[in-house]
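input
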Amino acid sequence: MKDILIQYMKRFTDFSEAELETITADIPLEEFKKGTVLLHQGEVPEKCYFVLKGCVRQFAIDEAGKETTSNFFTEEQGVTIFNQHTSEKKSKYSLSCLEDCVLVVGDLSIEQQMYDEHAGLESMTLKMIEKNMGEMHDDFAAFIASRPEERYQILLEKRPELIDRVPQHQLASYLGITPESLSRIKRRLERPHLRKVQD
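output
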């Protein structure tokens, strides 16, 4: 399954296939059962991940006990908590597997060592991060500017697979609405479709 990672890396570098195989040779690939917590809120992250199969949820619980989902990571997406700007380096989020997952596991403690061993790897990683951060910035801007129904429609356009893979209450939290509101939005959007089918 590392072929998936290699094909993804090719988009960001001129490394040859052989060079990429060398880089990924020592990177562990692990299977995680549904429900596995990869990182608890308040812990200092030591690992980063790349999803080859499955879905990982990022969420936080506030002091009142309210749980808020902030992201879902699926196939060909990197999972990293960026917290180097904080003094304690503790994560504000938890990461858990919503499905049985196969993940590439990176060790953040040897990140610099990997960069030293493979010239050009740091530049490639930076391009990956810039792409991910750019997409997150665009998604957040669209989220702030849109109404709940528009958020759901954007989700249908960009990440339709989440509709059937994610529990509705978590999907509603991700969209910033209640599960009841999400149900109403779904019904409103389904009615025109049903009328067309009946006609």
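quick obs: Residues 121-145 form the longest helix (25 residues).
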